[in-house]
Amino acid sequence: MEKIESIKEFGGWLNRYRHRSQVCDCEMTFSVYLPPLAQTEKVPAVYWLSGLTCTDDNFRVKAGAQRYAAELGLALIIPDTSPRGPEVPDVPERYDLGQGAGFYVNATQPPWSKNYQMYDYVTRELPALVESELPLIPGRRAISGHSMGGHGALICALKELGRYQSVSAFAPICHPMACSWGQGCFKAYLGNNREMWATYDAARLIEDGAAAIPLLIDQGIADEFLAQQLHSTSLERVCAARHFPLTLRWQEGYDHSYHFIATFIGEHLAYHADHLRETRTIETAATNPAR
Amino acid sequence: MEKIESIKEFGGWLNRYRHRSQVCDCEMTFSVYLPPLAQTEKVPAVYWLSGLTCTDDNFRVKAGAQRYAAELGLALIIPDTSPRGPEVPDVPERYDLGQGAGFYVNATQPPWSKNYQMYDYVTRELPALVESELPLIPGRRAISGHSMGGHGALICALKELGRYQSVSAFAPICHPMACSWGQGCFKAYLGNNREMWATYDAARLIEDGAAAIPLLIDQGIADEFLAQQLHSTSLERVCAARHFPLTLRWQEGYDHSYHFIATFIGEHLAYHADHLRETRTIETAATNPAR
């Protein structure tokens, strides 16, 4: 991987990298914030998955997360939302399909299947790459995201038991099979088999018996997409039915924007730091023969 | 003035307003962040002047200032950087002259003089408007800015003794008469009389006897514009010669971007809060993201 930009922020470094992705079969760009602590020791990483139309740039510029990451000693790993480039299939006139709308699935349908393998990219290829090249504690990962990226964070954590120590989301698409954004992408990327869709649908994964992990979700009540696209209450219902540990915080007056994310990202990163630290303590005890 | 947007952030409200400016003779747009405290009492205001090419949008999206303003009980007043609109003179092919490059002066030369009255707009018309329409403590004002806006903040505070309780700047253009950005705009807006230029030049205003006020400036050592455009050392020299109370902090590794501003904006707002009102005990809040 090649470092193409490095900017000092809060005593750490906000870097941008480019590399050839094997699974997406194209060049991918991502950003990483390394906190000051990473100059002297390896740190845990919080993966951030962005929403429709975003690149790695939106979160690093708008969320104000680097300040908290610096304080908490967390790295931020910020991938793009889809494969990119002139060779990569796209529907330029649509913001909710193709480039910028990878939906964090492994596409099975042509022409998408050649490049749109974002699930494997985010859960496998990218962690392996950054954990080998950067001062990160291998396997010490949390994941979060916004909207389509909130959906991505939820399914990655629900499908990859033990791969992430904690998960949170801002205004996630909780039940993509039931909303037009999700249906449009699932049909294009996965075909017509709705049972295949269900393997990338957070509400269905929980309903179908995904192992319990603590979920933290913030949802603005003034969110313009709440009624039609997000289906937070469907997730709430299946979690209640299965006694799934969901903390869904309804935030009065907040919309779908990065101003909503900026308001609560500090609490989300503190929540992830707690889980990432807990695991560290447990592992230290377990791997210390003197105890 | 008409409220055209309102977004909840950190418990307060980030609003955008449009109004007819008398002094700029056109419609102007500006943003205001009102902290939670403003729902129950009047608050002091920090005016933020942005740099070349910016509108009111850049600072509100990129600086992460609203979080600190909410904690400190400060309003943020964020004007545009020039008059705007199809009727307003511009040089579309230049980023450093015309719309987006008002340089915070009152233009005396045609065709600019009709609309480019940003000095009077920022120091007179805008404060009168917002202090009459919003929950602000009349006359309780601080001013800060970045690059061209840092120049603007410095000259407003130096020329308007008693009108601002404190002033700070990020990578300000300290001696515009001596750099190409300043010379280009001063020549266009003010003509060839360099003594007129000197009345809008921070270094010259101090050299020529401006009354002492505490100045806080942060300057990145990796700033790509430091050598040619900013002339921070000229300001340092005249301040030393006149025993002017300048705190110029050279920040190693930092560039000219909003990531630099985001890193230090909290300290600048705390500095202004000190001068504007009894400082609240925000240290814990500031270092505990969970709050």
UniProtKB/TrEMBL annotation, chains A, B:
Catalytic activity, as annotated: S-formylglutathione + H2O = formate + glutathione + H(+)
Residues annotated as catalytic: 147, 223, 256
Domain of life: Bacteria
Pfam family, one: Esterase
Signal peptide as annotated in the record: none
Record's function text: Serine hydrolase involved in the detoxification of formaldehyde.
NCBIfam families, A to Z: fghA_ester_D
Name of the protein described by the UniProt record: S-formylglutathione hydrolase
Biological source species: Candidatus Contendobacter odensis Run_B_J11
